[in-house]
Amino acid sequence: NLNCFSLKNGGASPFSTSEIERFYGLFKNNININGKGGVVAAPDHNTPGGSYYYHWERDGALTMRALQEVTKDKNSIMGALKAYTQWVLGRQAETDPHGIDVRTEPKYMLPDGAVFTGAWCRPQNDGPGLRATALMMFAEHLSATGGSDYVKEYLWTGDSSKYKGGAIKWDLDYVLSQYDSATCDLWEEVRSSDFFWNRVTMIKALHTGARFAITMSDTASANAYTALAAKLSEALYKEHWNGDYIIEATNREKDGAVIVGLNTGYDDALGMFAPTSAEVASTILEYNSAFCTEYAINRADTSSGVGGVLYGRYPGDVYAGGNPWVLTTAALAQLFYRAASFTSEHGVPAMAALDKWAKALNVDSMPSGKDDVAGVFLEAGDSVLLRLRKHVVADDGHLDEQIDRNDGHQMSARDLTWSYAEVLNAMAHREAAVQARYGKAVE
């Protein structure tokens, strides 16, 4: 197994405050297009995959969730979130031109939101759960700050004749009734009714939905969500943990979607695949080897003393030449930062997990003290982002979709919204991990 992961103690933050502010500004440019609530996947009309100037349901939902997670001044994004709410209600009300449930359309025209009518991989059933999760964060904030009228008006109406129960309720209804439908994967290439990404993000939506329904005095819905979450969780472990690593699907086993899903879909109520678990360590070990073998740039970086590793979508990818992706690499860093916080909060992982982590991180052994273990996870996250930094730093704060597998320059879609979301989220989790480890925000 060729694991080229390299742990490097950088100490300083991988990106400065001003660099993060630059990312945030470029990220926000792609949100609430023309004030109509849509999110552009990338303002690039000419990529190897054609124009990205559309609102993808998945990217849009993940963007609006990330916007809330990385923005400290929530008042500054209320307008964008209300516009997004209206966008979602508008899309939910559309008549579908393809004879499928409109909630599972992959993408929509900008700025007005008509369903994209060209040939595409559809349906995609991860959208409703992701959208509901983003909107529940918004609803919780509204309810806590005197905005519960807006919640009852648009998001959870308590009346099926009014916005079909509200934007959140109608999306969660989809998950309840159609969770096992056949679907395209998040990269829009293969089909299955059992993708890890779709499953784990649905479970997240259901757990969040159960808690939210109780605050809306809807015990019946809460019970239904909890019951389905339990059923899907059991299947998740049985069907996606193969004893060596977590698989995305039987027809695409090793896939960066798993890494993104371990962050996006994790919930304390899940009770499995915690960021410090042996299963996550084993998965990272396996994926390190796969992506080190796949990309010459990973081997070159390691041999020239650069820390971390770059991840792509999956071994054998050919899109745009098949390269590392900014978003999956940043997701790996976030996973490490979350492992650091998790250690600070819950203590040192079990011995078996620590042994797996030593292999994954390419070190002789892991330390035994809580602060030291958290410190190693922090270092691992920094190592990954420092390698990413090396390949993006010359581009004036612009983050693209991919990094060339041979020479390491950024390429494919320019200013990919999901790339910004993942890098900003990783840095927000770094700040939380530093806080948890040292009790104060230090570089």
The total of helices stands at 15
Query: Percent range for helical residues?
Result: 40-55%
Structural class: mainly alpha
- Spatial shape: globular
Largest pleated sheet: 2 strands, antiparallel
Quote the beta fraction: under 5%
What is the radius of gyration computed over CA atoms, rounded to a whole number of angstroms?
A: 21 Å
- Uncertain segments of ≥5 residues (pLDDT<50)? none
- Report the span from N to C terminus: 34 Å
Number of strands: 8
Look at the structure and give the mean pLDDT: 97
Order of helices and strands: HEEEHHEHHHEEHHHHHHHHEEH
Could you explain the architecture of this structure?
This protein is mainly alpha-helical and 443 residues long. Helix content is 52%, strand content 4%. The protein contains 15 helices and 8 strands. It has helices at residues 17-29, 57-70, 78-92, 127-144, 148-155, 167-178, 196-215, 219-240, 256-264, 278-294, 296-303, 326-346, 351-360, 370-392, 417-438; strands spanning 31-33, 38-39, 55-56, 107-108, 183-184, 191-192, 402-403, 410-411. The strands form 4 sheets. The chain has a two-stranded antiparallel ribbon with strand order 1-2. A two-stranded antiparallel sheet has the order 3-4. It is globular, with a radius of gyration of 21 Å. It starts with 16 loop residues before the first helix and ends in a 5-residue tail after the last helix. 54% of the residues are buried. The mean pLDDT is 97.
